[in-house]
Amino acid sequence: MKKAILFLLLIITTGFNTQKPPAYDVGEWFKFRIHYGFINAGYATLEVKEAIKDNKKVFHAIGKGYTVGMSRFFFKVDDNYESYFDKETNKPFQFVRKIDEGGYSKNQEGFFNQDANKVVIKNYKDKTEKTFSVTENVQDIVSTFYFLRNHTGIDNMKVGEFIAVDMFFDDEITKFKLKFIGREDIKTKFGTVSSMIFRPLVQSGRVFKEKESLTIWISDDENKIPLRIKANLAVGSIKADLEGFKGLKNPFMIKVNNEQ
Q1: What CA–CA distance (Å, rounded) separates 100 from 121?
Q2: Which distant-in-sequence residues (6+ apart) come within 8 Å of 103 by Cβ?
Q3: pLDDT by residue (tens digit) across 151-199?
Q4: What predicted TM-score, i.e. pTM, was given to this entire model?
Q5: Which helix (DSSP H) or strand (DSSP E) does residue 202 occupy?
């Protein structure tokens, strides 16, 4: 269960670029509640700020994930992921990964040279520095989330189609692939919302039942908000729901409001 919760935290703090005006802006903030059955396992937050890189204004996205209550007793998680990326191209300039997961910790930064297709990784824990070759337009784990929300073709996808992104994580490039499943109205804390359903391909085995065990519901509006993430595990299931938000760039299209 521990690895499944960490995977959800990565997905959230990691729910489409080629390019249109961003579906988000400075000031956007999300909070997600992660639960395993009836147990409140933890929370994750995402926030968009502004910073200066190479003498230009860029987006600075900050993702945090942490366990709470009894879940924290069994597997303490305090994760911090950050990304600085271009407002127009979404290309990342820099990422931060500072994590503490049950005694396993990392403290590193990555610096991208997109023109040379290189990334320099500085590990502050073991005081090492390595340079890796990357593909053109590669994303980091957090910038990938914003890249996908802004894909021009997402609204016209057909069931069974894929969106793929090259993502640099853990010193290697991963082909992050999402499969479009369809549309569905789902009940949320805020009311009934039209959503688009995607399934990232994951590795089946000890944690997940099969390659398509993970499902993500995204709001079917201009914001493309991650509403829900659910994973079917080898034992039980785990889910993350949108708990709070503010600073949306576009109206949140709720079909049936809970206050009505």
Answers
A1: 18
A2: none
A3: 877 888 999 998 888 999 889 998 888 889 999 999 999 999 999 999 8
A4: 0.86
A5: none
